[in-house]
Write a structure and sequence with these properties.
The structure is a homodimer.
Chain A lengths: L6 E3 L2 E2 L11 H11 L5 E2 L2 H4 L2 H7 L3 E2 L2 E5 L2 E6 L6 E7 L3 E8 L4 E9 L9 H10 L3 H21 L7 E8 L1 H8 L19 E4 H4 L8 E4 L9 H10 L8 E6 L3 E6 L4 E6 L20 E7 L6 E5 L7 E2 L1 H13 L16 E4 L2 E9 L2 E6 H24 L10 E5 L7 H6 L11 E5 L1 H11 L3 H11 E5 L4 H9 L14
Parallel strand pairs in A: 3-6, 7-10, 10-12, 13-22, 15-24, 16-18, 22-23
Antiparallel strand pairs in A: 1-5, 2-4, 5-6, 7-8, 8-9, 11-12, 13-14, 14-15, 16-17, 19-20, 20-21
Chain lengths: ~500, ~500
């Protein structure tokens, strides 16, 4: 059995009551747990009601399920065949979860769906504005409903009931965490930008409306204010920056670009909207990373045709973030676009499509996947913004990029991207390649760490206590670096080497 | 404002958020409370949801309502005009409550009704046996329903809504506390007599089904096993025995006789069924202490007629415990009964009524209140059992009655009894009168103390840790003393002086 997870069960052999040992049932259980170092156990009334039978049915050799909370524990149930937990990352665009067998501390499956709040606006501020003029209940309701679908689906896929899930760990940005908990978001977007709560929230599934085991422990990551959400804290936890001796950088690109530079002594966080970011917003054929998405591309230098790598080896239906990086790098290398991202008429491979010049990635069963010059330039704006944020941020902290020995790369870019291509187009700095460490969905990864090891709760408080936030939009150098970054790789390639 | 009550509110002036002070709302409140020494404040999710508005509506000068629980506090609400609390004593036969204005720490009213479980049996064991063969839900439901009627009535009498009540403190014997909480009672009456819980229970009104403010704090007294319930612990608290330097005695007569002998170093509790006790079970005209009950009697030595003192100055409808003590003492003093409780034919005052000899207390509007020889003897059995328990118990602890300097007298005997008469008939020991201290309904009184002062929670744990229980039914001397006690005052009056 795994005794370290946030919710855990353990075998406890209690003495049977006798005329010399007349402790009440709850007191007996509490004393038994105290002997093995588990203090401050809250026993909810409705579980206390079932306790005497549970103890006697098992002849006082019990397997209580406990959830860590605050300085103590809550008794969640008395016994279950298996103990499952779910880690959940609520992104502005996508929600990802992983299902764990907590006894074995083993990941069983992962699954993701779109955030159902997208119908209220792709931009998170549009959603908050809606909450400010009408009741925010609808946004919470749609989110909870979507999460219930997500959880139900992953449970069904694994032939289990969602009521077998005894623990849920949630990370998300400050607004998403607030919507999840049904908290008031209306003070977050107006100065001085105050969330309802910064600290972590321990509650039960029943309180949140999430349809897992009603008494299941729910832990929601703390935030460090409106801009530094639980997702970033979770990402830091995942990267382990807070333990590094020398400053390390963490880049996470989701709907926003999040930047963290820090070590065991200090952590600075910066964030900024990267314009239409690297997800599905850039191009008409943009698509999140799922079956049918192009994630890798090679363009033959002779025929100018593209060889595609598609998720699930399916027919290509669109292109995801890592595919876009490959596409632009390959278009440039194959001489189809120039440094400014403009089509080179003499380069070949360009077709006319409905009166517009496009590069055609594929044409199957009459469905064409094409990219236009304008879409390439949209992408360049995003990559330029990203690098500009990165450059200005590191400089503002008083360092140079070349001094950084570890660069953790997370978010939609985190796994599967062609590092060489990302550097070639000037999106990532031109540092020795071994310094880059992919961390995938770091927010989900941090949530999984809490799920499997409650000791990291202290680590999270440690991270929070070290964080300072640096506003990114106000730096005068930002716009200059951004402008220069609209070229491939950059008009001043020297700064790419920090 | 009273800051000491179990649930209390206090004015806290928080700093308004600013760009230099961006704490979240919940964190701001917690920090503000920490500064005035209030740590570990749990904020339930549904109160957190309303917190941002509450803080801003009051310009951050808030009046949180907090309930003490375990090592910390729970935020119950943000502001209320007044703060009310209820102390409740759940007796096997009667339930009494008092309503407090917690801000002023002032008792507003008291009220009592019969325990609605009486329809399941006057004897508590009959009720538990019923729970053992069928579901015990019915017994809990009827109790909760009755308490809701009681609370609703006392609130209506004082022109307030029951949802204004934010705190409920409950004392009762172990079985009553279990029924109140809906706990399993089935292991209590069988060896080794194990309750579901010994420790105190902190919960919310919503969890119990009590219809006061849903988030109201509910505190249920702990017990020291099946025989030493929260009512006794509450009674001890009320008497203050745990602080006495020299051993003091506490006698509480309700449906059972409860005896406590102790001081600041040790406390011994004994209990026993006193047969049909001093409440309404003894005589056909027996009645609990309420309007229309005879509570005091003088019999004129010449006419042998009785002058009655009736509760509420109403028409007499029956006789309560203190009335019975007076009646028997006066019948004896007036020569109407002899030492053995038999009618003295030559004494006068005796009438024939439906073929039975009776003494007539009153005859109004054709309704006769009479007492028979058999009923007098029933009463003598009860008083004999009571004294026998007392004598044997004190002796078993290794003391003599005459050594005891303080005798607290509680229960239905506690207020209004004619001490001289109780001693004259041999029910109480013949000690100097100034040693007797009436404490009334001591179980309710202890509950009121908790309601008004949460610091006594530690005192309660202190009492619990000192208690030992002495089984009373097994002493071979008991039956001898009981037999001798069937006379007035006793066949060996010397032992009445301990």
């Amino acid at each position: 059995m795994n005794h370290k997870s946030l919710v855990f069960s353990l075998q406890v052999k209690l003495m049977s009551p006798s005329t010399d040992d007349k402790d009440g049932d709850a007191d007996r259980l509490r004393n038994g747990l105290k002997e093995i170092g588990i203090h401050n156990v809250e026993i909810p009334l409705h579980i206390l009601r079932r306790l005497p039978d549970a103890l006697r049915e098992s002849s006082f050799e019990v397997k209580p399920i406990l959830g860590a909370q605050g300085q103590g524990y809550r008794l969640i149930d008395m016994k279950k065949k298996s103990l499952y937990g779910i880690a959940l990352d609520i992104g502005t665009t996508n929600m990802s979860c992983s299902l764990f067998d907590l006894d074995a501390c083993k990941k069983v499956d992962t699954y993701d769906i779109e955030n159902p709040q997208l119908c209220y606006g792709t931009d998170i501020l549009a959603r908050v504005q809606r909450s400010m003029i009408e009741d925010s209940g609808g946004l919470t309701d749609s989110l909870i409903e979507g999460i219930n679908v997500l959880i139900n689906t992953i449970c069904e896929r694994n032939s289990m009931g969602s009521d077998e899930v005894c623990c849920l760990v949630v990370s998300g940005n400050t607004i998403m965490s607030h919507y999840f908990l049904g908290l008031d978001v209306r003070n977050i977007p107006v100065t001085p930008f105050i969330p309802s709560i910064n600290g972590p929230v321990f509650t039960s599934a029943g309180e949140t409306g999430i349809k897992i085991y009603k008494e299941a422990s729910v832990y929601v990551f703390p935030n460090s204010g409106s801009y530094v959400g639980g997702d970033i804290i979770s990402g830091i936890l995942c990267s382990g920056i807070q333990k590094e001796e020398e400053p390390a950088l963490f880049i996470d690109v989701g709907t926003n670009v999040e930047l963290v530079l820090g070590c065991r002594d200090w952590i600075v966080v910066g964030a900024g909207a990267a314009g239409p970011a690297l997800e599905d917003g850039v191009a008409g054929i943009g698509k999140k990373a799922e079956k049918g998405s192009i994630f890798g591309i090679t363009i033959y230098r002779d025929t100018k045709t593209a060889a595609l790598r598609v998720i699930g080896d399916a027919e290509p239906e669109g292109i995801c973030g890592s595919g876009m990086i490959d596409l632009v790098a390959e278009l440039f290398s194959a001489g189809i676009i120039d440094q400014a991202g403009k089509f080179v008429d003499s380069g070949g491979g360009i077709k006319e499509n409905n009166g517009e010049k496009v590069y055609m990635l594929s044409e199957t069963r009459g469905k064409e996947l094409v990219i236009s010059e304008k879409e390439v330039q949209n992408f360049l704006r995003s990559k330029a913004a990203m690098f500009a944020f990165l450059y200005v941020f590191v400089k503002a902290v008083g360092m140079r990029l070349r001094e950084i020995k570890k660069v953790f790369v997370g978010g939609s870019m985190g796994c599967g991207i062609n590092l060489e291509n990302a550097i070639k187009i000037g999106m990532l700095p031109d540092l020795p390649r071994e310094r880059f460490i992919p961390v995938g969905n770091s927010s989900l990864c941090g949530a999984e760490m809490v799920l499997c090891n409650r000791n990291v709760l202290d680590e999270i408080e440690n991270i929070r206590s070290k964080i300072t936030y640096r506003e990114m939009g106000e730096d005068p150098e930002l716009l200059n670096v951004l402008q220069a970054g609209l070229f491939i790789p950059h008009t001043e390639p020297e700064i790419l080497r920090g």
